[in-house]
């Protein structure tokens, strides 16, 4: 017998933002004076050792990556959301670009101080890792592309070099325990953790 489905009613909308729920990362990059900048970013995806980031032009992160093609992709858990939010109104750009000024941004030089997070040296890249983030991925920039249909952001391709994980979230030698690890999710400008596990895919090894 044919299954009956209820078709949900839909409406075409024009949302101002389309942040439909992706993990927050704290991107550390290398400033021209050999200090480190931290930028909260939610536009990223991973396949193999390739991590692609969506980074707005006019901010400090992209300026730094163009000059020095290394970064650390620090991944906070939900307990760090207030540290992330402390960074939210600041840019490492001085002077602050007009469009950022209009959106309430001010300049901050020492983002570690602002966020009350702690640096630790990386193994192979210049920008430091953030101790409090359970995952810290040292990466090198492989390609930066500005799409011709949108001149406001860059698609930054990076390649992971070292993946540091807090011992507490590791299971066996080389796996992350999904019962111990939870990303911080940016969901239409609100912060969330994960809910309870629903199940796992046929290829899961944990
Ligand atoms: C949770 C969160 C997620 C964000 N995601 C992005 C993003 O994916 N890409 C981006 O360019 N900016 C994103 N932003 C805005 C940047 O953090 C902001 O542009 C800031 O100026 C970056 O700092 P910087 O100029 O020192 O690099 C996000 C901000 C917050 C708080």
UniProtKB/TrEMBL annotation:
Its cofactor is FMN. Pfam families: Flavin_Reduct. Residues 20-194 form the Flavin reductase like domain. The keyword Transcription does not apply. It is an enzyme of class 1 (oxidoreductase). It comes from Psychrobacillus mangrovi. Gene3D superfamilies: Electron Transport, Fmn-binding Protein, Chain A. PANTHER family: FLAVOREDOXIN, FLAVOREDOXIN-RELATED-RELATED. GO terms for molecular function: oxidoreductase activity. Keywords: Flavoprotein, Oxidoreductase. Belongs to the flavoredoxin family. This is Flavin reductase family protein. Its EC number is 1.5.1.-.
């Amino acid at each position: 017998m044919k299954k009956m489905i209820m078709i949900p009613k839909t409406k075409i909308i024009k949302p101002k933002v389309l942040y439909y729920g992706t993990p927050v990362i704290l991107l550390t990059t290398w400033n021209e004076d050999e200090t480190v900048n931290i930028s909260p970013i939610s536009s990223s995806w991973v396949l193999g050792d390739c991590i692609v980031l969506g980074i707005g032009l006019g901010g400090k992160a992209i300026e730094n990556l163009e000059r020095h093609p290394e970064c650390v992709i620090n991944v906070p858990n939900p307990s760090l959301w207030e540290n992330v939010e402390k960074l939210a109104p600041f840019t490492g750009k001085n002077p602050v670009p007009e469009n950022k000024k209009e959106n309430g941004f001010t300049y901050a030089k020492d983002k570690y101080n602002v966020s009350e997070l702690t640096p630790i040296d990386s193994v192979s890249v210049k920008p430091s890792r953030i101790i409090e983030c359970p995952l810290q991925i040292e990466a090198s920039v492989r390609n930066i592309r500005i799409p011709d249909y949108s001149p406001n952001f860059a698609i930054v391709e990076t390649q992971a070099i070292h993946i540091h994980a807090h011992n507490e979230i590791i299971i066996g030698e080389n796996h992350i325990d999904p019962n111990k690890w939870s990303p911080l999710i940016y969901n239409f400008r609100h912060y969330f953790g994960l809910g309870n596990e629903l199940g796992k895919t046929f290829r899961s090894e944990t």
